[in-house]
Amino acid sequence: MSDYDLVLKNGLVVMGEAVVAADVGVMGGKIAGIAHHLHGTEEIDCQGHIVTPGAVDVHVHLQYPIGPLTTGDDFFTGTRAAALGGTTTIIDFVEARPQQPLLDALHERHMLAAERAVIDYGFHMTITPTDIPKLDQVPAIVAAGCPSFKHYMAYSFRLHDGELLQSFQAIRRAGGLPIVHAENWDVIQALVRQNLAAGRTEPRWHPRSRPALMEGEAAGRVINLAALAETPVYIFHVSCQAVVERIAAARAQGQPVYGETCPQYLLLDDSLFEQPGVAGALPICSPPLRPRSEQAHLWAALARGDLQVISTDHCPFWLADKAAALEDFSRIPGGVPSIESRFALAYTFGVGAGRLSLSQWVARCCTTPAQLMGLTHKGQIAVGYDADLVVFDPQWPVTLSTETLHENVDWTLYAGRQLTGWPRHTLSRGRWLVRDGAFVGRPGQGQFVCRHF
Ligand SMILES: [Zn+2]
Fold this sequence. Notes:
binds zinc ion; alpha/beta; 8-stranded parallel beta sheet; Urease, subunit C, domain 1; 2 domains; TIM Barrel; 14 helices
């Protein structure tokens, strides 16, 4: 007799701190049993494989417009690539036009994602200067299942300190979570102007215009503003120890401050900007890649828990778009891809290299991002949670390249990287998305997830 729709048999199951050999039973799209000798209508032998929650990527930009450009991955290709890499939930972004109500902008974004997404998704609402008069709409966005709000301290749509404070206060009153891209735009602008005026236009001047010191300063300012507004705060894409130190110091005082980093900061360094031609332009992203010496600090912060999350900031512009602006580093569209490889990169270079335990790997890529972002039924293998599951083959050798990856972009910074370990199967709410490394899902299968704290 079958008690379950599906049973993953005899895998090594990562459940919080515990890593146990067990069967995982799925019923009605939920995890319904974790024990030995379970039986199901369908049974998959997972001997020698690791069973993890579906990975959660809380920072992706799909179909993301910057001026006349749009990122290569749309909600179909991006979520398909995510699924092939073991990610079953993403959080993308909504930006409202100046006069547009926030809810209208959210609905527009819903329409784009609904017919294409193959994995589950949510949205962060972006608060730009033209949204400050709309802060009374924040509770409606929280009620619509989007309780996290993105703020930029860089670019033309950056917020000044007073605007950040106002927004943080409104979000705290509504029970939401502010998120910040922390950099010091005034200093960046001054350095960019100085460099361009002196004829220093190559990509190598990008990191020299965005110093780690000032990323640390901006993060410290955000942490102080959050303390003043009495709100938790989450800092995106931490690239350097200067930010880690501030987060750690605030947390040691009991302040609820959280930080993520991304594969590009853990595995790549600023020597890539020295490459000639477009190769030096491809790695342009902000904050920039840092000197190699920063990487050990970031890994250690992940292991200690001073950084809680590995996300991607997946934002893939085409090689031609990067090449078109080569004569001025400040005009090269920023962003790098890794939506497909994040989970496996973190395994090979985290677990495989002895920097993270299996439990830490799952915590940073699956469990903690789900908890911090209000994904109350995701990110854990526990009865009652969504059956978003990955059967990870720790022996599978994969050499990364644009041919092996499915991201809709014609370059990757990880070309030639040898990984040991890759997701063999991916399930979303008990349904097959990836089977033996092949995508078997369909567009529109993903659902919007109402998040709440
Ligand atoms: Zn981003």
